[in-house]
Structures are given as C-alpha cells and as structure tokens.
Design brief:
single chain, 248 residues, alpha+beta, Jelly Rolls, seven-stranded mixed beta sheet, four-stranded antiparallel beta sheet, 5 helices, 11 strands, globular, binds 2-oxoglutaric acid
Amino acid sequence: MKCKLYHLHPEKRAFADDLFHQYQTDAQVSELFVRCRLQSSPHGHAQVNRHFAFNVGETYNYSSIPTTVPLEDSPPCVSVAKNEISNVVLRTLRCSVEFNQVLSVAYMEGMGMKFHSDGEVGLGDVVASLSLGSPARMSFRLRNKPGKGTFDHSAVTREEYEHWFDHACRLCRKSKPRVDEESSTPLQTELVCPTLFTVDIQHGDVFIMIGNTQRFYEHEIERVPGFRIAATCRRIEDVHAHANRTQS
Ligand SMILES: O=C(O)CCC(=O)C(=O)O
C-alpha cells in the first residue's frame, strides 16, 4: 500500500476552541499529562521526554511508555477528540476505523518531538491526529535505517527501500545523499536523510497518515512557538493474542 497524507482544515475553529479548553479543564481535575522517562537514555542516565503525554486504550511504546488508562475511563476531552478524529477519517477515507488507542501530547513553548516513526507492533494502516493551540511544523524524511526501532522491518528489501528513496528524492527535488558504493548502501550507513517536506499544522487541523508512511518515513514536530496539544488515534492489534488464536 502506498504512503498517503491528508491535511484537513476545519470549516470553523469553534469546536477546536472548546476542545482545547476541555483538555485544560480535565487536566485540572486529574493529572493527565506527565513527562515520561525515556526508554533508552544516552550514557545510561535516566532522562525524561521534553513533552508531556497521556495515553488511553492500548499501551503504546515509543521513546517512552506513557501512563495509560482504559478506553472506558477516558476523560471527556479524549473521548471527544477520538470521536471527532474518527468522523473526519470516515468522511475523508470513506471507511471507518475502530481506533483503540489515543495518545495526547502537550507541548509547552519550545518543546517538540524528535524524528521518529510510529513503530508499535500491530499498528494499523491509519494514524490520525487533531491539533489544538499553537501552530506546529511537522517535517518528514525517509527512515535512514529501516531496521531501527520496534517496527518489524524484516519485510523491507534493499531494492524496495532504494526505490522509495529515489522516488522521494525526485518528488521533493532533493539530491540523494552520496553513498560510498563500494562499502555501503543506504540501508547500512548512518546517513541522515534530508528533510523532504514540511507541513504547517494549525489549531483544529486533522492530519492523517496512511499506508506505508510509518514504514518508510520519519516525522518530527519542530519546537513549537506556544502551548499546544495533539491527540493522535491509532488502531493497534494485539498481535500476540491473534497469533495464539490462530495457533489453537
Ligand atoms: O504532535 C503531533 O502532532 C504528532 C505527535 C506524534 O508525532 C506522535 O504522537 O507520534
């Protein structure tokens, strides 16, 4: 399946205003957002993420493992965000996705999220987020090491990766980083791919990534100019339970 991105702007921003307010009200009632400890910290020192996060539904492992509560215990802000994102996805893709995980991230001025791809095992094809508050710039680049992270990249052949690499460089009119042909290939080197394109996301926008986007690309949120909250919905299959069911 191809990589596809959809950037949707709401007709009116009043809904986003209310939801942004709701998030802040709910966060006063119970402590939603916390800074989570990084799973791998350089030099063995315990470090925390710059941003604050709160997870609902299936557990989600990225650079850190955020506090998770079951879907039925979602605070109102998360349920409203999930419904809105599901509706926009239904209207846009004309198919309904039963999201079972929502990661809400809060950024104070100057915070961001480094380049990563959503690497959860069992991650579904559609990842959709709703942005509230300060504008943000999202940048994309090709994954320079497809084997990195928790995502299973065993199925990516070198030819497949190089095809995407060429295609993306042509599309964005960027020259391909030079590789020492004799000793290395893009798969093996520590090449850092250039940023291929950026997307400026505003208050109330919904951003959808589908298909192979996570497999071939990484995205980052550059340091934001002000307070921002983003709610991202995913469908995560319990691959272990599924494997057990099919074996028995
Ligand atoms: O802040 C955002 O809009 C996206 C956050 C993100 O990249 C993620 O949750 O993986």
